[in-house]
Design a protein that fits this description.
- This protein is an alpha/beta fold and 373 residues long.
- 40% of the residues lie in helices and 15% in strands.
- It has helices at 15-27, 37-56, 71-82, 97-106, 120-130, 152-162, 181-184, 244-260, 262-280, 310-319, 332-338, 356-372, and strands at 2-3, 65-68, 88-92, 109-113, 136-140, 166-169, 188-192, 204-208, 286-289, 300-305, 322-323, 325-327, 345-349.
- The strands form three sheets. It has a seven-stranded mixed beta sheet with strand order 2-8-7-6-5-3-4, with helices on both faces. Strands 9-10-13-12 form a four-stranded antiparallel beta sheet, with helices on one face.
- The chain is globular, with a radius of gyration of 21 Å.
């Protein structure tokens, strides 16, 4: 199988991740729930993982790194910690439902800073008009549908200028693009463990700066006499038993990212995307959504055929051993911005474990499929 769906889940992972998960299952109990060796090893692993992630994203204190189930969990905590019914919240035109649905749940007045696909200057202008007076800004760093790198540095600067808190959805950028959380000055940044960070499913991270409201309550192994959740991080947001096997795997994935370097990863995935873009651009009746400036796009490429439905194309690719995703990708706002809302797109997304030969083969299979469907 040629796996080209890493924007959904990094199925292809470093072998160290598999080993770390198995080792944790055999040797670790729950952090903070005992003074015996298995509990202490779990606590040490959790703390080491926090420290590693804090270093990777330039976070001052490891306690600001909170473990979540996924990015959606973290975004819910961030949004529901800050937003009250009726608050005006500015978002980009490329948000995932992990942002839009929690805002709906919170009763926010959503104000979309709409801009054309791959137009960073227009995105900044749209945010500049809407940020003053807003209760918050929520913005994804990279579109999960198109790989469009939004100008997060400029958007963050506008938020700082106007004193508006910023929540960053780093689901498609964490582990792929270098991020300095402190320099951005964001209130929260959420990310999954199972995508660019190469960790297992069921892991995520929320980086916090400022007041937080627990989304759920329960045991933390600390302040056990109190009926209230602890008032300090990370305990305030980590009720219940940790996914320590996932955290161990996440740490192994993050070590791999740190060793390889995000610059190298970003460049390689963009190279693979470029090879696929060039090959698919030769196919008649196929629209390829690619930035004129490659620096504005990560290793994610969407396409749409004029005659053949996206789901049919993806199903045919899957039957021939090429794994991709088709449809809305849980981001209808992105499709509305790009004009693909009617049916969505077929998405190819790459990882450091894909090869140029795989890309060439997948492009050739796509070409044959579109001729015979």
């Amino acid at each position: 199988m040629i796996y080209l769906d890493s924007a959904a889940t990094s199925l292809l992972k470093p072998s160290e991740v598999h080993s770390a998960v198995l080792d944790a299952m055999k040797t670790m109990a729950s952090p903070g729930r005992g003074s015996h060796a298995p509990a202490e090893k779990a606590a040490e692993t959790a703390f080491e993982c926090r420290c590693l992630l804090a270093d990777l994203f330039h976070v001052p204190e490891p306690e600001q790194v909170v473990f979540t189930m996924n990015a959606t969990h973290g975004l819910n905590i961030a949004i529901l910690s800050m937003i009250k019914p009726g608050d005006r919240v500015v978002v980009s035109g490329y948000e995932h439902n992990a942002v839009m649905r929690p805002l709906q749940l919170a009763g926010a007045q959503v104000d979309v800073a709409a801009s054309p696909l791959f137009d960073a200057e227009a995105a900044v202008e749209a945010f500049a008009k809407r940020i003053p007076g807003a209760a918050a800004v929520v913005c994804n760093h990279v579109s999960n549908v198109f790989g469009f790198i939004l100008p997060i540095d400029a958007i963050a600067a506008l938020c700082r200028e106007h004193g508006v808190p910023l929540i960053i959805d780093a689901s498609q950028s964490a582990g792929v693009i270098g991020i300095d959380f402190t320099s951005l000055g964001a209130r929260f940044m959420a990310m999954p463990g199972h995508k660019g960070l190469m960790g297992p499913q069921g892991t995520g991270v929320l980086i916090c700066s400022g007041q937080v409201r627990p989304l759920m309550a329960g045991g933390t192994g600390s302040n056990s006499r109190s009926a209230d959740m602890p008032d300090f991080l990370p305990d305030r947001l980590e009720a219940g038993t940790h996914n320590i096997t996932g955290i161990a795997g996440l740490m192994a994935g993050a070590k791999y990212i740190k060793r390889l370097g995000t610059v190298r990863i970003e460049e390689y995935e963009r190279k693979l995307m470029g090879l696929m873009r060039d090959a698919l651009s030769k196919i008649p009746d196929l629209t390829v959504y690619a930035a004129q400036n490659p620096e504005m796009q990560t290793g994610v490429l969407s396409v749409k055929h004029e005659k053949h439905g996206c789901e049919a194309v993806a199903e045919a690719l899957g039957a021939r051993g090429v794994a991709v995703r088709a449809g809305m990708h849980c981001a209808p706002s992105a499709h509305e911005s790009a004009g693909t809302l009617a049916e969505g797109t077929v998405r190819f997304s790459f990882s450091p474990f894909n090869t140029q030969a795989e890309v060439s083969t997948a492009a050739a299979i796509t070409n044959r499929i579109l001729k015979t469907l």
